[in-house]
Design brief:
By secondary structure, this protein is of the alpha/beta class. The chain has two domains: about 230 residues, Rossmann fold; about 210 residues, Rossmann fold, CATH 3.40.50. Helix content is about 45%, strand content about 15%. The strands form three sheets. The protein has a nine-stranded mixed β-sheet with strand order 1-2-13-12-7-6-3-4-5, sandwiched between helices. A four-stranded parallel β-sheet has the order 9-10-8-11, with helices on both faces. The longest helix is centred in the middle third of the chain and has 22 residues.
Length: about 550
């Protein structure tokens, strides 16, 4: 038998809490429908692409008094995309609801992500198997992958596998791209009269899959608390040694929710928000000067140390860099098959070829970058053909440029301090952490609720659990149509339907807290030290959710 740590043993015993409607019994639910919905943008185009699943209503589940019989169902489940804490509990909740509805029901897990349903690689879950993964981090229960479900051939193969296993519903646990695939698969299954339903669950630590019905994506709570603990530890170290500036890049490519939340939990000296940089059209030089100015002012006070939080995607939000990267993305497909580029014997030859292909303004920006960053911009692309921003060491780029700027100021007599920098990147550290009590409860509820959507015959829906700052018993379970969250975006040079990412709102209550305090935090060391995630003890320590959710919900409740 595998040896477990004491914490593992105790977490396996934890029984997640459910909304009272779901706790009343999966076969006792009643469903209330709202009005017809439409996509967030590009309504006519999305409606044309999703003729069979567009415009459905938001649904809410309420506790009923009459128990209904549930027919026998086989369900398949897929973990898709990057890991996020709590994924195992989504599957556990789905499994428990499925078995509660009808003990003859079966749940199959497709191995290695979406490729599992295409290739027919799966396992059948049992009580013993599921029980070994309850309340644990990671996606290792069946593994994950980034295969996209979008072609006719993939849909056909998925159908064949579902028919073989007599599967009548598929649950896809993933982020915005994965749930876009879920919407496409749901539409294809309906169009072809397969009788197979598709339900999504909102996963991403980035926090950018949300709207009025999806208050938070699962994993965000645990990941940000994990990063905040690490930042707090570094702040304590910085305040002890008083000789290092720590530049901490934090995961979150397209939105700065993770960086913003971690900042609110720890109160560092500098927090860059990508969306603000873009809104103010700050150049790379202006970003460098902003940070340098704070470093100089602190040095004047004898403080040659500090903490700077840098969002992973910052470099793409600097307008000149965004333009250059977009131009680079467009030309890289042709460069990868260009004999001159492929056969170039030195990296500098490749740089020259790239600069000659880029538009003049973008070529100038590319040429100004350090060699390290130039090379990273040419690294392997992501599945969408874009630069892999996580591999661009933005924190090191800033350190190098700030160091050069400080040397200039020192030679002019305008800087008297010492600048010693340390760089960090917090990403993988947060993706598979033991889920917080909040994520353990929320994920279990999302999975349980996903089967409720299946039981009512729905397809093309995202599992939705709301009112999340209230006790779990008061959470509201239901579903939101996936098409409601979609718009058209350019991918691989073509416009495609995708779920719209939710970026940080600069006029929203969360950013406003940072904005109101950043000058004070810059010069005065107001560091907070959150410590490790707690699972046992007072509810105010163990069950509290993120600052982001509390601030957003407080504004929503004030407007009710």
């Amino acid at each position: 038998m595998e040896k477990l740590s004491p914490l593992q043993i105790e977490r396996l015993k934890y029984q997640p809490k459910l909304p009272s409607s779901l706790a009343n019994g999966i076969n006792n639910l009643e469903m209330a429908e709202g009005s017809a919905t439409q996509s967030v943008r590009d309504q006519e185009q999305i409606k044309e692409l999703f003729k069979n699943t567009y415009g459905k209503p938001v649904v809410t589940f309420n506790a009923g008094s009459d128990a209904k019989t549930s027919s026998t169902r086989n369900v398949g489940v897929i973990l898709s995309g990057g890991q996020a804490p709590g994924g195992h509990n989504v599957i556990a909740g789905l499994y428990d609801a499925l078995k509660q509805a009808n003990s003859a029901n079966k749940l199959y897990g497709f191995l290695g992500g979406p490729s599992g349903i295409i290739d027919g690689k799966y396992i059948e879950f049992t009580d013993e198997f599921i029980d070994a993964y309850r309340n644990t981090g990671g996606f290792d229960i069946i593994g994950s992958g980034r295969t996209k479900l979008e072609t006719e051939e993939q849909f056909q193969k998925s159908l064949e596998v579902c028919k073989k296993l007599n599967i009548s519903a598929v649950v896809i646990i993933g982020g915005d791209d994965s749930n876009t695939n879920a919407a496409l698969l749901a539409e294809w299954f309906v169009k072809n009269n397969t009788g197979i339903q598709v339900i999504g669950c909102p996963k991403t630590i980035d926090g950018d899959l949300k709207n009025e019905q999806i208050e938070i994506s699962f994993g965000f709570d645990t990941a940000t608390k994990t990063y905040a603990e690490l930042i707090g530890n570094i702040q304590r170290d910085a305040n002890s040694a008083k000789k290092y500036w720590h530049f901490i890049k934090i995961m979150g490519r397209s939105a700065s929710h993770v960086a913003l939340e971690a900042a609110l939990q720890t109160q560092p000296n500098i927090t860059m928000i990508s969306e603000e940089v873009e809104e103010k059209r700050m150049s790379l030089e202006q970003v460098v000067n902003y940070i340098t100015d704070i470093i100089v002012k602190r040095a004047d006070q004898g403080k040659n140390f500090g903490i700077a939080i840098i969002p992973e995607g910052l470099i793409e939000f600097i307008p000149e860099m965004k333009s250059m990267i977009a131009n680079l993305n467009d030309i890289m497909a042709s460069l990868e098959t260009d004999p001159d580029f492929v056969n170039a014997t030195t990296i500098r030859e490749k740089f020259d070829i790239v600069e000659n292909r880029l538009d003049p303004a973008n070529a100038k920006v590319y040429a100004s970058l350090p060699i390290l960053i130039k090379g990273q911009l040419l690294a392997d692309r992501d599945p969408h053909g874009n630069v892999q921003v996580s591999k661009i060491e933005t924190e090191k780029l800033l350190i190098e440029m700030i160091s050069t700027r400080l040397d200039e100021l020192k030679s002019q007599g305008d800087y008297i301090g010492k600048f010693n920098a340390q760089s960090h990147f917090f990403g993988y550290e947060g993706r598979c952490a033991f889920p917080s009590n909040f994520d353990a409860d929320y994920c279990y509820s999302l999975g349980f609720n996903a089967f409720a959507l299946i039981n009512f015959g729905l397809t093309g829906y995202l599992s939705s659990v709301r009112n999340l700052t209230a006790p779990a018993s008061e959470w509201v379970a239901g579903g939101v149509p996936l098409t409601m969250m979609m718009n058209m975006e350019k991918r691989h040079g073509e416009f495609k339907p995708v779920i719209q990412k939710a970026l940080v709102k600069l006029d929203g209550p969360v950013f406003k807290v940072l904005e109101a305090n950043r000058e004070d935090w810059a010069m005065n060391d107001r560091y907070l030290f959150p410590g490790a995630i707690q699972y046992f003890g007072p509810s105010c320590v163990c069950d509290v959710t993120t600052c982001t959710l509390q601030l957003e919900r407080a504004k929503e409740l004030a407007n009710v």
